[in-house]
Structure formats: C-alpha cells, structure tokens
Write a structure and sequence with these properties.
Rossmann fold; alpha/beta; about 10% strand; globular; five-stranded parallel β-sheet
Length: about 220
Amino acid sequence: MNAKNTAYQITGRRRSCITIDRQYGSGGREVGRILSQKLGIPFYDGELLLLAAERFGLNPGRLREKDETRSKSLLHDIAMFAGSLQNYGQMFEPYQMFEAVSETIRRLAMEGPAIFMGRCADTVLKEVCASLDIFIYASSMEERVSRIRATDHVPAKNTETYIRKKDQQRREYYKMFAEKEWGKMENYDICLNTSSFGYEGCADIIAAMADRAGSGRKKE
C-alpha cells in the first residue's frame, strides 16, 4: 500500500461514514446538508435525538435540552432523568443519555454510509467503522455573529458572549465523553474554515476526500 492510499484508510478499512464537529455559528450544519446532497447519503443532526427518544422511550424535549452540554451538577441531571429510561430500570444519568444517542449513531452507521453531526460521533464510531472526521470553524467572529442573529434570534449585544458559551459547552461535552480536546487539529482528518472556503467550498473539499477515502457516495 503506498503512502497516498494509507492517508485515506484506517487499519485497512474503507471509511464508510463522515463525522462533522463544528464551532457554533460556523455553518457546519449547512456544510453537512450540502455534503449530503452531493454524496446522496443521509445527514443526521437533530434527528438523532428524536430517534434515540423513540427507541429508548425518552422525553425528546429533555434530551434536546441536554444535547451536547455538560451539566455543572451531575446530581441535578440524575434527579431530572430519574426513571425516564424504562429499559434500563434505573436512574437516567447523563452517561446513559449519551449512550442512548451513541447506540442510535452506531445502529444508523451499520445501515450504510451517512454523515453525523457532533455528539462525539468520531469516538462513538471507532469500534463500528472507520470514519472521515471533520472539524468546521469560522475565523471571522463577525460572520458567526451574523449567522446566529439570523438563525437563533439572539439579541445583538449578547451574541458574541452566547457563541463563546456554546463553544465552551461543546468543548466540555467532548472532553467528558470523547476524552479528547475539542477542535484540536490532531483529532480530525481535516479542519476547514468556512470564512475562507464558504459552505459550498468546504462541502466540495470533503466530498473529494470522501471519494478518495471510499466514504459515502451512494451507489447508483
């Protein structure tokens, strides 16, 4: 196997899934949607929560409330989720909530190529398949602020603070469950700047990588 091929394989396995982590307001979700259209494969983001809730009999609202956040009070979370995971027959603490979403990710990955947004999917899929792992960021805070004001309707004077808070929540969540540093380039195959390449440009780069890596593209 030559060096060029080695760069796109892990332990001899073709990469069948793509994971995308992202800074808040960087447009990572939009990149994922465009990529899904280009490759003709499913893109899973918020749907993961609904599928996990349905599969494990959870309250989707509660699951969404705690999505990609690390609560400062573990006891508070345990109290809130006590008894809600019927199949487990025990209190539903944050680690069990994470496992419910993780099991959903693994099950979907077994069904075929797909794109997964956030939720430590790169770590979750390690034992299931070799994935192409992407981190999306935006070097322009002004662009991030503009996007979040338009999509999340955050007051102008609080937007930058809100963005930094959301990034910190994702950083802590990733450290807690993936036990790695969120956004550190060594943890991903490539980090892409939407401020430089735009959403479409980032999707084009990932699609080209996916073709070489054997990821994704639906067979006709």
